[in-house]
Design goal:
The chain is of the alpha+beta class and about 325 residues long. The protein is built from 7 helices and 12 strands. Strand 4 (about 105-115) and strand 5 form a beta hairpin. Helix 5 (about 230-240) crosses helix 7 (about 320-335). The chain starts with a helix and ends with a helix.
Length: about 325
């Protein structure tokens, strides 16, 4: 399928107005069996070095860029995507995390579409047969189960509604994507024609307007070889918290800024008293007490599943135990 035919198939007009479809299959995003997650022509697979935690869900990411359009490279901020772009993120659970070949359960596919009026999110929930997904503006609940090295698990996976999507995807009053930054995309990925750095691939395909010689790279939170404890903890905080906790985000009034480039110790929470945490403070005094994770508000909130306490507020019903341990180790190292 050519990119021009694809453009017509997913219903972008010349003004990039988006025609919402009831069924995900009507966009022709996937080729063949959806559970194989094979993209149709025109969609490019991508991945992040340190992804957002969402109840241990696996994520498959695609991006579509209209013909004759390019992404504007940004050194620190999320890339500027042209109107008509589509970001596709599918959440799924392998039946067995230790043996993915045993099959997967597709749960949700979220479309982020850059319309003329700005970015909009459209959540789709997969049916039990994993043959198609239906638009669910109001969100929903999808029971899922899986097995890993710790045993069997079962949860009610929560699909956010369209308004909840705005709760995280807002910067300076505008809806924006979260993940596609230079530091997150600067990694190798296995394409059908070989292994390439993602940014080099995008540039070679004509999707990026420019690519500097020196590109930032974030640490992989789960790989000690990728960076120091400090860099890995900061990477985890950057993707899980900084979309709200930055100077232009929804939590800007908190004074707690957890973005990767933040250098002010107090803004990072070190010996910082919360402005308005309520019972979310756990009666602790500081966001971070160096050397004492057990008396740090960040650890208290990351370790909670109480909606009135937990952080992040959305996107999880479980504690990210491995991420929590990373932050505990990091805070202890600050002594």
């Amino acid at each position: 399928m050519s990119r021009l035919l694809l453009l017509v198939g997913i219903c972008f007009s010349l003004s990039f107005s988006f025609q919402i479809k009831k069924n995900l299959s009507e966009y022709s995003i996937f080729s063949g069996d959806p559970k194989e997650l094979i993209a149709s022509d025109g969609f490019i697979h991508y991945d992040l070095i340190t992804p957002l935690f969402t109840d241990y869900a696996f994520k498959h990411r695609l991006v579509y860029i209209p013909e004759q359009s390019k992404i504007e490279y940004k050194e620190r901020d999320v890339f500027e995507f042209p109107e008509g772009s589509m970001i596709v993120k599918t959440f799924y659970y392998p039946h067995d995390f230790e043996n993915i070949n045993q099959g997967v359960d597709l749960v949700e596919t979220r479309l982020l579409v850059h319309e003329t009026s700005g970015w909009k999110a459209y959540p789709y929930i997969w049916n039990d047969e994993d043959t198609d997904a239906v638009l669910s503006v109001a969100g929903g609940i999808r029971p899922v189960s899986w097995k890993d090295k710790k045993g069997d698990h079962a949860i009610d996976y929560i699909v956010p509604n369209m308004n909840q999507c705005k709760g995280c995807h807002v910067k300076d009053g505008k809806f924006v994507p979260i993940g596609p930054t230079a530091r997150q995309l600067n990694k190798d990925l296995d394409y059908h024609d070989g292994i390439y750095n993602q940014l080099d691939k995008w540039y070679d395909l004509g999707l990026l307007d420019n690519l500097p010689d020196i590109i930032p790279k974030i640490a992989d939170w789960d790989d000690p070889a990728s960076g120091s404890l400090n860099k890995r903890a900061r990477a985890w905080l950057d993707i899980n918290c900084a979309h709200c906790h930055n100077t232009q985000g929804p939590a800007k009034t908190s004074g707690l800024f957890l973005d990767y480039y933040q250098e002010d110790p107090k803004a990072l929470g070190i010996y910082k008293t919360p402005i308005a945490a309520g019972r979310g403070s756990g009666e602790f005094e500081y966001d971070i007490v160096p050397g004492d994770p057990d008396h740090s508000i960040l650890v208290y909130r990351f370790n909670s599943t109480d909606p009135g306490v937990m952080m992040p507020e959305l996107g999880r019903t479980m504690v990210h135990q491995e991420g929590l341990q990373l932050i505990r180790d990091w805070i202890y190292s600050l002594r």
